[in-house]
Amino acid sequence: MHFNYLKFEKRGKIGILTLNRPEALNALNKDVFKELSCFLEDRETIQSIRVLVVTGEGKAFVAGADIKAMQEYSPQMAYDFSEIGKVVFDQIANLEIPVIAAINGFALGGGLELALSCDIRVASEKARLGLPEVNLGLIPGFNGTQRLPRLVGAGNAMYLMMLGEGVTAAEAYQLGVVQKLAPPESVLEISLELAEKMASKSPNALRLIKLMVREGLELSSEDAGKMESKEFGRLFKEDQKERKEGIDAFLEKRKPNW
Ligand code: CAA
Q1: Among 56, 164, 177, 222, which residue has the least CB neighbours within 10 Å?
Q2: pLDDT tens across 157-170, in order?
Q3: Listed GO molecular functions (predicted)?
Q4: Among candidates 153, 13, 214, 88, which has minimal Cα distance to 80?
């Protein structure tokens, strides 16, 4: 598949997806979203990898939605743009494999929202992260007002959205936006190390962990607990080969073969 704004590379069981529009700091416009959606719908590619790492070309991860393109938007166009972004970011959040954001530089506005749709975030110590929409008379439009408070609590989310200044990677780490910091030249390498570790775990367990966390956040803790017990029970069905292999391998003192 040919893309203008994306690059994709496979390293063994890991896929690396690079936003590739460096002249605009990888800003998100409709074409970028179309390509992202196309990539995420390609089942053959997704099923051929165990972990996806998302990163940006050049000095930015993604500097947000394309401000130039938004200049002429009507309310309907803005609504549609917001919906397109949400659909694509939900596609990422709902992938059955872990997705790591390797934040190589600026992750602002829609760029941070993209990173928030990934499962974990590794950031360059030099990166700046934030939601600066308030400076443009806007609000985050790709689910940032919802994903961020679910990740770091309402107070921290309001702090980032209302100040709109962005924070250093170190502060983002303290707030819980970022799970790991890396020297600028090693962001991808450290993200790939984490990806390799995850790729050695049970794919089915990874899929379920993701599902339980994401769906559970939308349920009462009682209902979420029931959902977990149901899935835990289901893992012990006869046809659940990964559970059998994992437990057998432990007892036989060998590595599991998923
Ligand atoms: N949209 C479109 N173009 C962008 C862009 C964006 N979000 N961010 C940067 N660019 C472009 C610049 O216009 C510039 O293009 P030209 O060379 O044609 O002038 C090029 O990328 C390089 O950017 P800068 O010269 O500004 O680079 P810098 O290093 O001086 O500054 C920056 C970097 C601080 C990230 C600055 O570019 C910036 O503030 N960008 C905008 C960040 C922002 O406000 N993002 C939120 C967008 S709104 C949003 O995302 C809404 C939503 O949720 C739906």
Answers
A1: 222
A2: 999 999 999 999 99
A3: lyase activity
A4: 88
* Domain range annotation of the chain: 6-199, 203-251
Per-position DSSP letters for 49-94, written without gaps between them = -SEEEEEESTTEEE--B-HHHHTT--HHHHHHHHHHHHHHHHHHHT
How sure is the predictor about 1, in pLDDT bands with cuts at 50, 70 and 90?
confident
Among 25, 73, 148, residue to substitute to test ligand 1 (most atoms within 8 Å of Cβ): 25
In CATH, the architecture of 6-199 is: Alpha-Beta Complex (3.90)
How far is ligand 1, taken at its centre, from the CA of residue 151, in Å?
Answer: 25
What does the pLDDT read at residue 256?
97
Query: In which residue are the tokens 């966390």 written?
Result: 213
Q: Which atom of ligand 1 is nearest to the CA of 82?
A: 54
Q: Exactly one of 113, 125, 185, 228 is catalytic; which is it?
A: 113
Residue 156: pLDDT band with limits 50, 70, 90: very high
Which ipTM was obtained for this model? Answer: 0.98
